[in-house]
Each structure stands twice: as C-alpha cells, then as structure tokens.
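Example (one chain per record):
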Amino acid sequence: MMVFETAGISSLQDLGRRGLQNQGVGVCGAMDSLAARVANNLLGNTDNTALIEITLGGVRLRIEQTQWFAITGADLQAEADAIAVDLCRPIRLEAGTMLHFKHPRQGCRAYLAVQGGFKAEPILGSVATDIRSGIGGFEGRAFQRGDRIAYAASRYPGKIVRWHTAWANPSFPETGPLPFVPGSHWSWLDENRQRQFCGTEWRISRNSDRMGLRMEQALHPESAWPSLLSSGVAFGSIQLPPDGHPIILAADRQTTGGYPLLGIVASIAHSRLAQCRPGDHLSFEPVSAAEAVRQWRRRELHYRQWRQHMAQWWHP
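Predicted structure:
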C-alpha cells in the first residue's frame, strides 16, 4: 500500500506497550482501542494486530495488492475509487484501488485493518508509533506521501459479505455523561465545585491531541492546593493543573503526573473520549469503581462472544 496523500496524522498502531510505564516507556497504541480491536476481528485477526489510525481524514492510499480490509471508528466518508465504502464490515479491495478518507462526518479517528496485519518490526513488544520518542510504527513517525506499507497476500478470495456489525459503528453513537471514578484528590474540591464539575458542559480545546484532551473552561479550587509527588497515570486520568483547565490523559500520555487527580474516566467510555474533536462537549457523572468494572465486564462478555463468532466465520 502506498501513501498517496496525507493531511492529518496517520500512523501505525496496535494496543500499545503494556507493562513498561514503571520504566518510563509510554503505552501509546490506538486511541480508540475498541474500534481497533473490532476492525481486526472483522478480518479474523487477533486484537493486537497492527493497523492504521487515521485522524480527521485527508488521506489517500493506493492499494497495491488485493486483500480484505475493514474500517471502523469515525466516519471519515471513506471512498474506494470515488464509491462510498461501508464501515464495520470486511471489504475486498483490488490492486490499483484508490482509498480516500475525506473529512469527518462523525468522530475523528478511523481504523483501517488488513487481513493478516500490516508488517512492522516490534519494538519493546509493540509496533505502536510513539512519535515523541521516535520509535515503533513506520520509522517512528506519522505517514508521509510516498511511504509504502507492506501486508500479506489474500487467503480468502471467494468470501461474500452482506452484513456489518454495530460494534465501533458511528451509526450507533453513545450519548450522555461520561462515567468517571472519583480519584484520590476529588475530596479536595468542596461540594459546590464538585457539583460545578459534574454540571458543566465542558468544551474540548484546540490544544488537544493524542497525549490528552484539554478543556476550555476552568475550575478553580477554593484555596491553593499543596504540591504533590508524581505518580503513575492511566488513560482517562482527569488532572487539574494550576491554571484550572482540566486535562484528560490519553494514549500518548506521560508515564507519571504530578497534578491533582480528580478521577479516571471509566474504561467503558474510552472510545467516546478517543473520538472527540476540538469544539465537542463533554459532561461527567461519578460512578463507583465496582459499577465501572461491572459495565466493562458486561461489554467484554458480549464482545468476546462476537469475536468468537467472527473467528468461526473466517475459519469454519
């Protein structure tokens, strides 16, 4: 596959470098890990197979070898030779096809998977692109015009697909407040400011990226808070820096943080965070850790049943 044109940031990702934050190595990986997993399993791949994350569109890719592909996540108005491409289903693209991701209709990050995965050399157990460190993916950077990305030849020429899935499908958006588990410094806010935090429609700042989502409005404590020692941070950590503009940490976050931790967005809502664009609005609703785990387990049970069905469809 050749990169014919690229406007935004597109990069090779998997599920990231897990278990190395204590050594100062960031996780990175797909921002919307559920959409990435769904794209791979639509093709019979494993969850962690390498795929391409496309942010905000403006990308043209020329298919150089006939193969099965799948697109999930954001609706970037994908077209193959100027014909609209269905999302969330396997699609067979012939050599010479021009695949165009235009502009976002909904969401901001789409995932392009290929059967067998894109080829890249793992670094520290992952092919995820860490642009700040310059490791992983394609030469440790985002794709540029003229780059060529290798993948395996097709093994299933005769399959016919007349279906799609609702998993990671922008046609079925989730709404409502984002559930979050209050963190170790939530109690530092008085009741009025806790209500203010949960009652505000927060607007995402243009100063947001894969490292974190920054809010335009501010929340100022009643009095100055003491300095803190740095501690480990996770995807969805809600930090409150001295300027009062909350930051929600994301895939390319640092390994530790020293700002007060108001809470952590529940895993069930990480996909919604990943698909937020500057100017979008968010609100928050506190939940217990037990409830967050219960919601995650319920979704994962359904997902694993669907994943098993997909594996049997490709390998009866």
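Caption: The chain has two domains: 2-169, 178-295.
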